[in-house]
Specification:
Length: about 260
């Protein structure tokens, strides 16, 4: 004998069977956290050579082999060097498309930085590795004295970087601490930078510039007089440092990246 056939309710359309699964929520285009890592690893990952290394599930490519120590351990990813060379670790940002809104944040713990003019840098680029291209962006912290840093914003206009800003001048602002959080966000040609020593993991567009350390940046290629052309896809996050020929040791303890609604 077959099973009981559920009664049909013409008022509701219910058959007495299990309720159907709810329809998936519509994609509102809001920011999605596509990268969230403490840059820690166990066992330790040696990153002292040029290559690609997986740290906390994320693939990073190193551009130079100049560090005395370069490794990801249980405390984060640490670099110790006295080189004069810019060194970067590079990853491809998941899901990002041309015109998407991007927000990236990098948390540093500074252990030693002996030289004035030593730097920490974030780049957003359209090409992998250490290759720069027009419309690329960077924000940089440059040591001025002691544990005091000044921020620099720049865009790649062609064969070289152009340091600049829109509105208030952020370059005279200084920030002092051994914990430094850098944030860069925007889309197309309009971007914002922010630096703080605030404790805790940064929120999406939530890093308030400390001591006015941050500012607005407009990217363009050399000779461009309007912003009608489509911007490139800045799909590579590049995190770098330069010890300026003296002792430097620093640890990356957090990297976050959000991808927001596509600009149409």
């Amino acid at each position: 004998m077959g099973g009981i056939i559920p009664a049909f309710d013409p008022a509701t359309g219910a058959s007495g069977g299990p309720a159907p699964a709810p329809a998936p929520a519509a994609d509102t285009g809001g920011p999605k956290l596509v990268l969230d890592t403490a840059m820690a690893a166990s066992p330790t990952v040696d990153m002292s050579s040029v290559g690609t290394f997986t740290v906390d599930g994320v693939a990073w490519t190193t551009t130079e082999a100049v560090a005395t120590v370069a490794e990801a351990n249980t405390q984060g990813t640490i670099f110790t060097s006295d080189s004069v060379v810019d060194s970067y670790i590079v990853t491809q940002i998941p899901t990002v498309l041309r015109g998407d809104f991007l927000c990236v944040a990098v948390e540093w713990d500074l252990l030693v930085m002996a030289a004035n003019n030593a730097t920490f840098t974030i780049k957003l680029g359209s090409l992998a590795g250490d290759t720069d291209a027009p419309y690329d962006l960077f924000m940089q912290l440059r040591k001025s004295s002691g544990a005091t840093f000044r921020v620099r914003n720049a865009y790649r206009g062609g064969a070289s970087w152009t340091v600049g800003y829109n509105g208030s001048n952020p370059f005279t602002a200084s920030i002092t601490d051994t914990r430094l959080v850098m944030m860069l966000y925007g889309s197309g040609y309009s971007w914002t930078t922010s630096v703080s020593t605030a404790v805790g993991s940064p929120a999406y567009r939530g890093l308030v510039p400390q001591n006015a350390a941050g500012g607005s940046l407009r990217s363009r290629a050399g000779g461009q007089t309007n912003l009608d052309a489509d911007p490139p896809n800045l799909q590579y996050l590049k995190i770098g440092w330069n010890p300026a020929s003296d002792d430097m040791s620093a640890r990356i303890v957090g990297v976050k990246c959000w991808v927001g609604a596509r600009v149409v």
